[in-house]
């Protein structure tokens, strides 16, 4: 999630745990702790693929953060001014303020390496977009009340309860969408195909479904308010003929670990060379995928891995027309919204008649 939300979550957790004892201090310290794991963004690994796939790594590990929280609790309990508060309460304060950050991140699409240093893929069960005002606002109001009144517990506790209730709603919305999705995929023989169901930007009413089907991938939009209106299924080329060459490189294999199989492959002319580029289809929206990476260049008919991966210029993430049409589509299934409206025609394999 965004930094404001993470700071608000840490502040609310801090107030709920020790607000009665520490007042405003619990909220302020919690905000700092809630932001701490994202400081890994300042680390430059010298390579675009490494920078993306190492983010939300060691700094988001439940092992690391629990250990750090335990250390901070032990150190704090040695301070004379802090001895009136039991060690167990300090431990809950520090550990919860730190670990709720990656746990919330794991509910977004990007993925979070909760079990670092174990070599396991990032955990991602997306039920909220990376920015969702309906989740963040109750937290901000709660901590605002705490800072204004000096009662460090009541406001944050209520804010935390309301934001958690919103996550429960989001989970239920996803279950409803997945239930409606099953017969659509079964009709096309895609029941066992890899799929990703995630909310569209800034809401939990409209959900984007990406299904990988060999050389193709399919995109669908399903809304909580759609009723019995069947979704449109749009099919795109995935460039799978380049997949073997991409995965043969170390960076390609790393991307496959991070995002596979939701990757698209293509060749672009970059700096006067034919370049193999992989795009993460999970992040962004069709036509606005911000995460693309150079993996290899063509030399003498063969693909040679690049020395340093780079991110080519990405399409704008702020297309107002697309956002406005998404907002309208979230509230009603008509008029239909086609993701292919925003995608280069060369990638469209098959569009429904309504598109």
From TrEMBL:
Q: Which organism is it from?
A: Halomonas mongoliensis
Sorted alphabetically, which PANTHER family does this protein's record hold?
A: HYPOTHETICAL MEMBRANE SPANNING PROTEIN, MEMBRANE-BOUND METAL-DEPENDENT HYDROLASE
What sections of the protein cross the membrane?
57-75, 87-104, 124-148, 155-173
Give one GO molecular function term. Answer: hydrolase activity
Q: Does the keyword Hydrolase apply?
A: yes
InterPro entries given in the database record: Transcription_regulator, YdjM-like
Where are the coiled-coil regions?
A: none
Keywords recorded for this protein, A-Z: Hydrolase, Membrane, Transmembrane, Transmembrane helix
| Any Pfam family the entry gives | YdjM
Q: What name is this protein filed under?
A: Metal-dependent hydrolase
What taxonomic ancestry is recorded? Bacteria, Pseudomonadati, Pseudomonadota, Gammaproteobacteria, Oceanospirillales
């Amino acid at each position: 999630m965004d930094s404001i939300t993470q700071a608000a979550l840490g502040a609310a957790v801090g107030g709920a745990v020790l607000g009665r004892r520490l007042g405003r201090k619990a909220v302020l310290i919690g905000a700092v702790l809630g932001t701490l794991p994202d400081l890994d963004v300042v680390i430059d690994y010298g390579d675009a693929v490494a920078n993306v796939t190492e983010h939300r790594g060691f700094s988001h590990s439940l092992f690391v953060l629990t250990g750090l929280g335990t250390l901070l609790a032990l150190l704090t309990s040695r301070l004379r001014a802090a001895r009136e508060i039991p060690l167990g309460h300090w431990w809950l304060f520090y550990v919860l303020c730190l670990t709720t950050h990656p746990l919330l991140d794991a509910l977004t699409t990007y993925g979070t390496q909760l079990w670092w240093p174990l070599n396991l893929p990032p955990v991602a069960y997306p039920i909220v977009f990376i920015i969702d005002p309906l989740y963040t606002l109750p937290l901000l109001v709660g901590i605002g009340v705490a800072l204004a009144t000096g009662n460090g517990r009541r406001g944050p506790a209520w804010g935390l309860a309301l934001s958690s209730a919103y996550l429960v709603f989001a989970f239920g919305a996803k279950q409803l969408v997945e239930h409606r999705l099953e017969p659509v995929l079964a009709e096309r023989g895609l029941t066992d195909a890899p799929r990703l169901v995630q909310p569209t930007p800034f809401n939990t009413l409209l959900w984007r479904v990406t299904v990988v089907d060999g050389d193709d991938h399919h995109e669908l939009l399903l809304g909580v308010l759609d009723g019995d209106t069947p979704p449109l299924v749009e099919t795109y080329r995935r460039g799978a003929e380049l997949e073997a060459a991409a995965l043969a490189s170390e960076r390609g294999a790393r991307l496959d670990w991070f995002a596979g199989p939701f990757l698209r492959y293509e060749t672009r002319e970059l700096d006067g060379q034919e370049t193999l580029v992989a795009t993460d289809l999970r992040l962004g929206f069709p036509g606005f995928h911000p995460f693309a990476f150079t993996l290899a260049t063509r030399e003498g008919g063969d693909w040679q891995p690049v020395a340093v991966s780079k991110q080519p210029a990405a399409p704008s993430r702020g297309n107002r027309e697309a956002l406005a049409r998404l907002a309208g589509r979230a509230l009603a299934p008509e008029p239909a919204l086609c993701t292919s409206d925003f995608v280069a025609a060369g990638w469209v394999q098959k569009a429904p008649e309504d598109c």
